[in-house]
Amino acid sequence: MGRLGGMSGRRMGVDPAFGDPMSVDVVIPYYRDQRMLDRIVAALARQTGLARPPRVIVADDGSPTPPTVPPEVTVVRQDDRGFRASAARHLGASAGDGEVILFLDGDTVPAPGYVAALLAALDQSPDLLVVGRRRYGRFAAADVSEPIEVLPDPAWPASFYAGTDDLTRDDGGWNAGLWRGVLSAVCGLHRRLYDLAGGFDPRIVGYGGEDWDLAWRCEQVGGRLRYVPGAVAWHDGPDWSGRGEDDPGHVAQKNAETARLARLIVSPLTRPSGGIFGVPLVAVHVHAGERGSGADAAACASLVCWGDVSVTADPASSDAAEIAELFGADPRVRLAARPRWWEPASQGAGPRRRPEVLIDLLRPCALGALDPGRLRALCPPVGMLTLDDDEGRVLARIRTSRALAREHLWGDRPGEPVVIHAADLGVTRFSADDAGVRLERILGGW
């Protein structure tokens, strides 16, 4: 059955004939907008197609005056220490116990079938994060669930969803970035997936990016994404990108978000090429070589050309002293045991981020000659890739963090490793005979 936590026999369906529906929390971050909150709460009370109403949790981001809500609505509050919508969402999610968590922004009003459409998509899919369709309009002062004036949708979401088959088609490389299609204003997921990913990061302060960060981490722990265009919610006013694109304040806010995401999301789409970050794009553990001297150090020297990489070398290597001398000032290379990035994730440990690609270098070779983007694209969605030499010996075992999670957390069964001959990719093995490897020749290129 796989490790789905016993959920495969439980339905998320809205029809009570299918048995008890799963419990649902709707979390609304709030700050000083009582009229809009009243409209959202009223719209949630009028949802259609549900066997039982969701629990509504309002997460107040330190408003001077707490919100007023009906008795069945839960309110949680945090201090006002700047724009902390990410922390507010996580506070609200932590206050609930629903098996499904839906998020709505405090200026986004759900259409009558919004909740039912998301729940239908989540039915029996505990590894799925869904995003609804956010439309735009202007509301009247009266309590209505739909705007009196419809505003144009921005062009990019429809184009992105069409190009990715509603967030279900990934090219296997780094360039798809399906997480860019997730909006925290209109998204939902099973609590198990939320907890495995670590939830919204409460340390994020400032506007924007926390939804992409959560979606990327959900993918890393093996989650899938899907756009549900039938789940419509209305944003009060135009899209953020249409509120002054040429305004210096708008540009500065977007630039701050971009700089923040470079540290959080491990992707070439968010980072300067060759930058050094706490969580690298690729992590390599160099196992101790067989014989001779210089081969392990040469392998490390080959790998640093990737830039955004972390290399740990077995302290038992015969090259330990040379590696320490060569890379003493380079934070990307160190003598250490294999990092915990290779271990399965567990719930409740906060936001967790791992390198996209994990490599065990079993025999020293010039792996750095291969473009890491191509290497990522060769990795199977489940299981691993091995690079073999001409004699059939494995030089490296390569897998993605997502593939590791699909196996350990969601019960996917990997087949036999995908085997590629290193010579076919231009990767040569460093000789490990008794004479060893002349490092000056490797470093000097002669």
Automatic annotation (TrEMBL):
GO molecular function: glycosyltransferase activity
Recorded metabolic or biological pathway in which this protein acts: Cell wall biogenesis; cell wall polysaccharide biosynthesis
Keyword annotations of the record: Glycosyltransferase, Transferase
Domain Glycosyltransferase 2-like: 26-136
SUPFAM superfamilies: Nucleotide-diphospho-sugar transferases
A Pfam family recorded for this sequence: Glycos_transf_2
Superkingdom as given in the UniProt entry: Bacteria
Protein family per UniProt: Belongs to the glycosyltransferase 2 family.
Protein name as catalogued: Glycosyl transferase
Native species: Dietzia natronolimnaea
Species classification: Bacteria, Bacillati, Actinomycetota, Actinomycetes, Mycobacteriales
